[in-house]
Amino acid sequence: MRFDDDASLDTSEVQDMRGGGGGGGIGGRVALGGGGLGVVGLVIYFLLSQFGGAPATQLAGGLGLGNLGSGQQIDNTSLSQTCKTGKDANRNKDCAVVAMINSIQDYWSGQLARSGQTYRQAPTKFFSGNVRTGCGNATSDTGPFYCPADKDVYIDLSFFNELKTRFGAQGGPFTEAYVLAHEYGHHVQNLLGTSRKGGGTGPTSGSVRLELQADCYAGVWANHATTTPSSSGKPLVADITKDDINRALDTASRIGDDYIQTKLGSGHVDQSQFTHGTSQQREKWFTTGFQTGDPTRCDTFGARTLG
Fold first, then answer.
1. Of 107, 130, 138, 297, which residue is most buried, by most CB within 10 angstroms?
2. At residue 110, does pLDDT exceed 50?
3. CA–CA separation, 103 vs 124, rounded Å?
4. CB–CB of 238/4 below 8 Å?
């Protein structure tokens, strides 16, 4: 994944909340129970609490913003001075995160406008350890999530290292872009009113359909990323390779309900507890979005089968 050297970056779409205090209590259970929507969601919390293992807050940071530890905080003014163009994003992981978020929001802003609707920008908020949100308190073990109540995306960047160390994903910049695009897919669902259809557990539940649609929306953005202009008129993303897409699919295959239950959980698949879909389904719907580039092909709620 490569960014256009001359394209401008907008750091106002990123907010760093680390070191500013946060929530407490049972964390992820509150946030996700309060309506939060995540790429892996409650499953990490339950796995770590029931089967043991180091929580994400104890793992080395994987991406961006200087890999700062808990209790440390970056000066966003300094970030804005560092991350000005795509050239900065190509050489600095902090700036690459900003560029990804800019590109994703630029696409959906244009797409919704073409559909006669209005896109409301949502900041991505980085936190370390725990955070208070409009959906309740959350911990790093929740994984990245979108909170419909305050219309913000939240992520502890150590999750990207967790994907490699615990889930066995290949990782890489486009893996991170896929995760962020998935969360912004939830934001689009919230703006369109689709989020209210989600809920329940099971292989055909509203929760599964909502998550698979967010995967599909991530694929749609990936299809258009290299042609979506930024505010300066130039596309931020200059190149997405076949290897990038394969890495995104590899990640999707490792965060399916069935994979997590068998590899990281009890070793048995319990479809009644599905909330995100199988590995195969997650790969299928991301691929559908990427190959078609058409958000209307992401109608998981109208699909006869989910794959």
1. 138
2. yes
3. 13
4. yes
Q: Which residues on neighbouring strands pair with residue 126, listed in sequence order?
A: 16, 155
**CA separation for the pair 159, 81 (Å, rounded):** 26
Cβ-proximal residues to 276 (8 Å cutoff; 6+ apart), any chain: 39, 40, 41, 43, 207, 208, 211, 212, 255, 256, 257, 282
For every residue of 88-135, DSSP letters joined together read HHHH-HHHHHHHHHHHHHHHHHHHHHHTT-------EEE-SSEEEETT
CA distance 230 to 248: 23
Q: How confident is the model at residue 35 (pLDDT cuts 50, 70, 90)?
A: low
Lowest mean pLDDT among 63-72, 123-132, 146-155, 223-232: 63-72
Are the beta carbons of 79 and 47 closer than 8 angstroms? no
Strand bridging mode 145-147 / 37-38: antiparallel
Among 137, 134, 276, 103, which residue's Cα sits nearest to residue 201? 276
DSSP labels for 250-281? HHHHTSSHHHHHHHTSSSS--GGG-SS--HHH
Half-sphere exposure of residue 278: CA atoms within 13 angstroms, side-chain side: 13
Residue in the block written with tokens 């076949």 = 242
Could you tell me if 275 and 199 are in contact, meaning their C-beta atoms sit under 8 angstroms apart? Answer: no
Buried b (16+ CB within 10 A) or exposed e, 84-97: bbbebbbebbbbbb
Enter the pTM of the model.
Answer: 0.87
DSSP string, 44-74: HHHHHHHH----GGGSPP-SSGGG--TT---
- 91: which 2 tokens? 């050489």
Q: Give the C-alpha separation, 60 to 68, whole Å.
A: 10
Average pLDDT, the chain: 83
Query: Token pair 């700036």 is at which residue?
Result: 95
Sort strands 136-139 and 14-16 into parallel, antiparallel or unpaired.
unpaired
Backbone angles phi, psi at 9, to 5 degrees: -110, 150
Q: What is the pLDDT of residue 40?
A: 66
What are the start-end ranges of the H helices in 193-241? Answer: 206-224
